[in-house]
Design a protein that fits this description.
The complex is a heterodimer of chains A (about 160) and B (about 270). By secondary structure, chain A is an alpha/beta fold. Chain A has one domain: Rossmann fold (3-Layer(aba) Sandwich), CATH 3.40.50.300. Chain A is about 30% helix and about 25% strand. Chain A contains six helices and seven strands; from the N terminus they run βαβαββαβαβαβα. Chain A has a seven-stranded mixed beta sheet. The model of chain A has no long low-confidence stretch (mean pLDDT about 85). In chain B, strand 4 and strand 5 form a beta hairpin. The mean pLDDT of chain B is about 80. In chain B, strands 2-1-5-4-3 form a five-stranded antiparallel beta sheet. Chain B has a domain of about 120 residues: Beta-Lactamase. Classes of the chains: A alpha/beta (about 160), B alpha+beta (about 270). Chains A and B meet through strand 1, strand 2, strand 3 and strand 4 of A and helix 6 and helix 9 of B.
């Protein structure tokens, strides 16, 4: 059995958490579960160039304005938390530093990745200026539409968790 | 003087008989007065007559009057009558059904005890006869279809065993994750911080959940899941957990799954 890790996706409503990984996911339950339970479980097996592989069990949580409103039982036991925000909507990243501080304090020792999504909809240069002004340094700029950097994100997480 | 004597003689001759009769009448009046004055004696005399009269009245004259009156009353207030009788009839029916079920149960047990077979012979020999619960269980045999060992907080599947006929269309790791999410959701929703979800039932299937400190074991079973089956399964899982699960096991999934298979592949019920 390939080793498995729990990855939890969090972020505000409509930032593209679900669409970001949809095309790469091998198996998923009906999306109706997300509106009922507040989470949808997806699985992605990543095989590295070295031949090592890992099953990523991805918990795609429903959007919350405030990260502290996420159900703690969904975040506990995570091996990695991916914080997703929308590069085209400033309101989704103005409070990032507070949210990250909350996550680091309440879920220590969990790998944390910050992802700016919808890179296809903005000029990265102009957004980076705003992000710098707010002292925000995302780990990845992804596009669910073009698939840009999504594989890289998964690969890096897998390498770091192995 | 002679004349007076003769007159007296004549009186005696003429009224002697009347005097005797009068004396008898006085005696009878005295006797009747004594009866009338003494209530006990009077009751003794009158009671049989009154009883006969009342009996005759209740037998012949009263019933038509009462029936007619009741019919009229019932017709005039049907709802009130139903209202009054409903709980009484309900209790009677309930009592009747309970009694009939009890009789049925006894009859089946008696039948089974009496039935001749080696199985029953040996069972009765060792003081154990099949009962109704067993008959019901036998009609819907319980079968373990799948058993999953899942890490509590992460929902990561640590070991799994499925019988060959079990449906494998959905990825087991995703089932483990979704089950953990459902479990967390239910436990949070009912604010049962120190309580755990122990079973999920869906038609003929039951998901039995047994919680441990770092992990939980979920067993999918088909058939009639009752307290007897639950106890058997709980004991079997506890036996496996006591002898079969260490920290190393949780990190070596393949070997752990093999041991799970060896332990649960034979019929446990």
């Amino acid at each position: 059995m390939t080793s498995s890790k729990k990855i939890t996706l969090i972020g505000t409503f409509g930032v593209g958490k679900s669409s970001l990984f949809r095309r790469f996911i091998e198996n998923q339950f009906s999306e109706d579960y997300q509106s009922t339970l507040g989470v949808q479980i997806k699985k992605k097996t990543v095989t590295l160039d070295s031949g090592e592989s890992m099953s990523l069990i991805i918990w795609d949580t429903e959007g919350k304005e405030d990260v502290s409103m996420n159900r703690s039982s969904y975040l506990l036991g995570s091996h990695c938390i991916i914080y997703v925000f929308d590069l085209s909507r400033v309101d989704t990243f103005t409070s990032i530093n507070e949210h990250l501080a909350f996550l680091k304090e309440n879920y220590p020792n969990i790998l944390l990745k910050v992802v700016g999504n919808k890179s296809d909809a903005v000029s990265i240069k102009s957004v980076q200026k705003k992000l710098s002004a707010l002292d925000i340094t995302p780990d990845f700029f992804t596009s669910a539409l073009s698939g840009e950097q999504v594989n890289d994100l998964f690969t890096l997480i897998t390498k770091e968790l192995l | 003087m002679e004349r007076d004597q003769r007159l007296q003689k004549l009186k005696e001759l003429l009224f002697n008989e009347e005097n005797d009769h009068l004396e008898d009448l006085n005696k009878e009046v005295s006797r009747l007065s004594a009866i009338l004055d003494n209530t006990d004696v009077l009751t003794e005399k009158v009671a049989p007559i009154v009883d006969d009269k009342v009996q005759s009245f209740t037998k012949n004259e009263l019933p038509p009057i009462v029936v007619s009156s009741l019919q009229q009353q019932i017709n005039n207030s049907q709802e009130a009558v139903i209202e009054a009788l409903y709980p009484i009839i309900g209790k009677m029916i309930k009592k009747y059904i309970a009694n009939e079920i009890s009789l049925l149960r006894e009859r089946i047990n008696t039948q089974m005890k009496a039935s001749f077979s080696f199985k029953n012979f040996f069972k009765s020999k060792f003081g154990r006869s099949p009962n109704v619960d067993e008959l019901i269980v036998n009609s819907q045999p319980v079968k373990l279809l799948q058993i999953l060992i899942i890490e509590k907080q992460s929902g990561i599947l640590k070991a799994e065993y499925s019988v060959p006929s079990a449906d494998q269309s959905v990825d087991q790791e995703m089932i483990a994750g979704m089950l953990t999410a459902i479990k967390s959701f239910v436990e949070d929703a009912f604010q049962g911080k120190d309580q755990n979800l122990e079973a999920i039932r869906y038609e003929l299937y039951t998901l039995h959940i047994q919680n441990f400190y770092n992990y939980y074991i979920a067993a999918v079973i088909s058939g009639n899941y009752n307290s007897q089956i639950r106890d058997t399964l709980e004991n079997k899982i506890l036996e496996f957990a006591q002898n079969g699960i260490s920290k190393e096991d949780l990190n070596t999934s393949d070997l752990f799954s093999n041991r799970l298979k060896l332990f649960f592949e034979n019929d446990i019920f």
